[in-house]
Model the fold of this input.
Amino acid sequence: MVDILHRVGVVSPSVDDVYAALTSVDTLAGWWASDTRGDADTGGVIQFRFTAGGFDMKVIDLQPGKRVLWEVVDGPEEWIGTEVVWDLKREDGYTIILFKHQGWKEPGEFMHHCSTKWAIYLMSLKQLVETGAGAPDPHDVQISNWH
Done:
């Protein structure tokens, strides 16, 4: 198994600002997919719809100010059964996001694409928290015909 890993620092008064952006359908729509719906509570399923397709994430664990964990329950075959983990901590005036999309079976070309797109969306999340406006799909940076 292989993982996608990223670390991003967000200028925010509190880790709670970033946690809130990861745990509400409205704020998720503000930085990841404009077409987001569902239940963001533990045990709920959030549906993210993009120009190129979509994903359904089951909310497995919510630890306020510390961790968000989703399991991919629908979407591209390579994603089903993988987990998306957001670990949060404070460091020198930043909220640090330690992001992991874990459990990929192999590092194929689609994983390379997804790693770049996760980086783009993490920057959108940073933008949303710091400025109030992110760049969710379909307003994100396009990198290929996979979007």
